[in-house]
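Crash report, auto-generated. Payload:
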Amino acid sequence: DAGVTQSPTHLIKTRGQQVTLRCSPKSGHDTVSWYQQALGQGPQFIFQYYEEEERQRGNFPDRFSGHQFPNYSSELNVNALLLGDSALYLCASSLALTNTGELFFGEGSRLTVL
Amino acid sequence: AQKITQTQPGMFVQEKEAVTLDCTYDTSDQSYGLFWYKQPSSGEMIFLIYQGSYDEQNATEGRYSLNFQKARKSANLVISASQLGDSAMYFCAITSSGTYKYIFGTGTRLKVLA
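Recovered output after restart:
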């Protein structure tokens, strides 16, 4: 049973560039959430996708956008990269209808902006 | 707004001993869930244990138990019989009905000593 997979695992970009991160949810899961984890901090909620729609968004600028595909996989796009966007980006999947709402996380994509 | 506070940046414990990691929360919601996640150096967030706000019994999962004190708004994680593989970052998180985002604390780094 494949867990949550993310790609790429590491990447380096320069300021002003654009980046796309990809996520495949755990088998059977229909909901994908994205979190940003800066060094030494806890994860911060970016947004959640369900049924190919953004269901909720955290306090992130419009430079952060996403997409969910019919197979439930998802992409996170960040435009006009800033140095402060350097972080570990975590994808988490879940089932929309669960009692506990437990999130299953991937190992993340570590983005470095120079 | 919801908030999680973890006041212990780092903790040491001797192998085979028990350790308690502190977590206090703030929420105005009546229905909420509390989670603990473990993050090893690989980056993946691993679900450990869940406590619902209406659960009367403290949650237990193997060597993990959650000491839930609702009136004090605390949800401490107790790890019994610590193992070297328990060395990692530990995050407490909260979510509630009506929202899809999880709020994480800043984490506690646990080091198990041989």
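Post-recovery validation: The radius of gyration of chain B is 14 Å.
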